[in-house]
Amino acid sequence: MARNWPIIQRDSEFEAISAALTGSEQAGVVLTGDVGVGKTTLARQATSAIGGTIRWVAGTESARSIPLGVFAHLVGVSTAHDPVTFMSAAREALLADGHTVIGVDDAHLLDQLSAALLLQLAIDKAAHIVVTVRSAVPVPDAVTSLWKDGHLLRIDLRPFTERQSVQLVESMVGGQLEGFTANLMWESSAGNALFLRHVVEGALEAGTLRQVNGVWQLRGRTAVTSELAALLEDRVEQLPESVLRVLELLTFCEPIDLDVLVELAGEDAVEAAESRGVIRVVENAHHLVVRYNHPLFGEVIRRRLGIVSARRLRGCLYTSLKERPINSAADRIRLAELALDSDKSADSALFEAAAADAIGLANLPLGERFARAAVRRGGGVEAADLLARALLWQGHRIEAERILAGFDPDQLDEVQLARWGSTRVANLLWAMGDADGAGDVLALVRGRLKHPKIGTIFDGLASASAVNENRIEDACAAADAVMTIKGAPPWAVWWAAFGGGLALALMGKGQAARRYAARGRAVEEHIDGLNRFMSTHAEVLALTFTGDLDAARRCAGAYFGYSAPGQYLAWGMSKILQGTVDVAQGRFPDGIEHLEQALAALAAEGAAAWMFPARIRLAEAYSALGRATEAAESIAEATARGGRHSAVYEPQLELARAWLAAADGTVTLAVRIALAAADAAAGSQQHAIEAMALHTAARFGDHSVAARLADLAARVDGRLVRAQARHAVALAAHDGPGLDAAAAEFEHIGSMLSAADAAAQAASAYERVGDRRRLLECAARSNRLAVACGGASTPALRKAARPLPLTAREREIANLVAAGLSNRQIADRLTVSVRTVEGHLYRACGKVDVTDRDSLGAVLRGESRPG
């Protein structure tokens, strides 16, 4: 696939080359590095920038046996063939045009006479020289002397950093690269520019690199182009059979224990592979393991092997490893992978255990493969349950429901019934959005269970179901019942920790929510990997609602270990956690990037209730930056997929609508929606959301919420709600110093947009009493904070930035005029008459000294100022 690849700048190396080729201290530069690292590209870029006469030659294997081979074309055929005369003629031809830059590519392949000529030119400083040399290969002594004796500056060209690799790929594909994909590509290419290019082109050809919601994602194994495979094949074909055997075994089991590899391939072969630089031996948990020296070698070896050979090699590895102790989930997964496509047989128990391990590590595609293998080998409801769990998280909810519905609950024992029922309720409620169906299955199973501890699993699940349906008090009661039982099963504790923890966080009981989260973490090794993000999300919310944003950041950024392509869903969920904290802190560009990538990674069919918070936070971030159209789209997506299964998010979604109205310039409507969100939250005991909504109304200019916020400050944990209450009191009193103090407090907490709004309102309060010095100080502070938020635009900030002598209603109508709405559209939006709109416009035009609505709109857009 022919593509024009951009050149990624290496500024420091470029400057060093330029200085060496134009200065007098040294005769030039030697660039060393691995094949494909970009030596030639950088050398030619630098010499072209200098200009002048440039002569390029390239060392080759075929010319290596010819004396003065790379320079032979410069010497006439009649020239004497003794070395001295030959070199003299070549030197004369090279320097015939005066000052010359001589470029030699792959100088490690030079014949001895050419290398000697190059060294002589460098010693005499007869020309400037730029040379490229491949690392870790034999080099003629004369070429080594170029840098060893200080004639040329040596620059070791390193592989690209991850940032440079991302820049290269994004420039090529013309779009944003998913962070998870960027890391996989960087690791598989080891930052080698040539390899990276072929990895991208191979993935595009294979269809595994595709664009989803504007984000480029790699799903599946990395692929390499035939061109790169041929390039690496040349190196592979020079290896002896014994070393090839080592690489073939490593292809299907990397990393592999050194002792196992020695047993299968022989000690001499392993030593030879290491000495040739194709493998490396590293220490891992006090054991020596073997890895490829470059990750793409495995793909090349894999392409060389036929199906029969690959099955035989996997079988050989499986036979050896199954006799050894299994010390970890990784050991079991590796054994199951080998058995899956080998010429040996394994029973369903291995695949069931490996499926549970893979699902526990959030590698859902791998868990699905193992679970299907277990089902094919006669696994019963246990194998089917694992398969359904892997499917529902990937969005294949219909297939998951079909598999589970195929079992008769009357034929299951209580342990089987618990597994079957838990997964089916989770699939119906969270993946399919069928709260009624989930409730029916939950009731059916609870009615049949007799064992009390097994029954607690469904008490916990009832808590998780209740919180999503916005039955906050029921969720807390069910969770409390589980938490008081000593020795409750891990899944019972986890469901209760999630359901009760989220309910407590929304109620504003942050400390209790964190205790529930700690109980959940204590059993998480028994829980599916992706489920952990649900309880972590509840903890992150509890921390943000209380104002402990640094702790929320640490919680959201906890490392979950994403090393396999199949863990992209876990990566996406971690981005939701990070984006949630970003928005709480006012880091809106970061939040948008994290949340957009999360939604692209999680893009799948189904209700997917766990994506609601991402869409809500994204809408808030868009609105804060004035990107109303995108905010509206995000809200519409959440609304379209809403229902009883996601009712808990309705007050937050209503608050996002308030932010959208504010971004549209309809501040009166924004206040009304924010107050409605507060009432909805209060009605369901979501007091933390109630406080957030009331404070939002205050930030939009409402003076009526101070008493209500003060009451909540006595009931909701944390310093944030107390700061919100003090802010509302100061706003109602037009108290400039009080608003100024509120801005400082919010900034200390880390809630930067609240700080910006409070500072902007302080500026307005100082303007009201004619204190111009403090007005300017607060306006500057609000501007600084708004910039820190990515250029936020809120009603308070807009008013502080353009202080005009307008009432709130006049400003609102003028903003809508500036947005291009007609008088009729404005009247419809504000539910007033056209005559009322016209009256406000008439008075507003008089106050800012303009004659018509178009000029008024221009003033509000900052396009002109009254004279």
Describe the structure using short key phrases.
867 residues; Arc Repressor Mutant, subunit A; alpha/beta; Serine Threonine Protein Phosphatase 5, Tetratricopeptide repeat; 3-stranded mixed β-sheet; Rossmann fold
Helix content: 55-70%
How many E strands? 11
The major beta sheet can be summarized as: 5 strands, parallel
Rg value: 34 Å
Strand content: 5-15%
The average pLDDT is: 88
Uncertain parts: none
Indicate the CATH architecture of the domain at 604-805.
Alpha Horseshoe
Q: How many distinct helices?
A: 44
Shape: flat
User: For the record, what CATH class of the domain at 604-805 applies?
Assistant: Mainly Alpha
Give the termini separation: 61 Å
CATH topology of the domain at 604-805: Serine Threonine Protein Phosphatase 5, Tetratricopeptide repeat
Structural class: alpha/beta
Q: Strands of the biggest beta sheet: in what spatial order?
A: 2-3-4-1-5
